[in-house]
Design brief:
There is one protein chain. Helix content is about 35%, strand content about 15%. The strands form 2 sheets. A 4-stranded antiparallel β-sheet has the order 2-3-1-6, sandwiched between helices. It has 6 helices and 6 strands. The protein has about 240 residues and is an alpha+beta fold. Strand 4 and strand 5 form a beta hairpin.
Length: about 240
């Protein structure tokens, strides 16, 4: 009996004994061609653009980095790809704005033509050429400097949804030989504009939630009325 207990304790000790030195010894005895070293995979760099042309640069983004053009996503699955490549970017209610900055406009005095193009989407409150002030503000930043022989415009729409539509449809479009790049400029909003924007968003969310609740209730009533032996009032006949 004592011999069996001793053998059991010895087996337990062998099981609980760490085998890391033994593994190292076995690996060192193998030929180098059979040893596979696994290194941790570094996280992918953000698709940050270091210029308006869209080349990547893994550095800290400048304060106005939301105005830079992002690279197009090249690794989407086939079932998620659209006809045109797009960049992956997410906007919240704080990022969206009635104010838009328009880059890539050729320097041939196209203020009126650009206004006519924007008016197609909705009423425009103001539009101005801010190329000189933009270059002075970002003099030491090569990433935010506009392309040569192009202007930067600031446009403000009356309604936020019109600015959203104009940005979606005019971004990366050809305009008199130049490729436009539109970005939101929430830093140009006043306190009153931010308050109105948040209130509008709350009302939209409240309306959508109410509409979704009405649809759910109508669908549940319709399913109940379709059950056998149940009338339109939901009571068994």
């Amino acid at each position: 009996m004592t011999k069996h207990l001793t053998a059991g304790k010895r087996a337990l000790a062998n099981v609980n004994k760490p085998r890391i030195p033994q593994l190292h010894a076995r690996i060192s005895s193998l030929p180098h061609s059979r040893v596979l070293i696994r290194r941790p995979i570094a996280p992918p760099l953000l698709p940050f653009a270091n210029s308006m042309s869209g080349t990547s640069k893994p550095t800290n983004p400048p304060p106005d980095s939301h105005h830079l053009r992002f690279q197009y996503c090249q690794n989407r699955p086939l079932y998620r790809r659209s006809r045109q490549l797009t960049a992956v970017r997410v906007y919240s209610v704080a990022n969206e704005s009635r104010h838009l900055l328009i880059f890539g406009v050729p320097q041939i005095n196209l203020l009126q033509e650009l206004r006519q193009e924007l008016v197609r989407f909705g009423a425009v409150e103001s539009i101005s050429n801010i190329t000189d002030s933009w270059q002075r503000e970002h003099e030491g930043s090569d990433e935010l400097q506009p392309e040569p022989f192009t202007d930067v415009f600031h446009a403000c729409f009356v309604k936020l949804e019109k600015a959203r539509q104009a940005k979606k449809l005019l971004d990366a479009r050809n305009f008199y030989g130049g490729i436009l790049h539109l970005s939101y400029a929430p830093e140009r909003e006043s306190v009153e504009e931010v308050r109105a924007k948040l209130n509008q968003r709350r009302s939209e969310v409240r309306f959508r939630a109410k509409l979704a609740g009405e649809r759910r209730s109508s669908n549940s009533k319709q399913r109940t009325s379709n059950l056998p032996g149940v009338g339109a009032a939901g009571l068994r006949q």
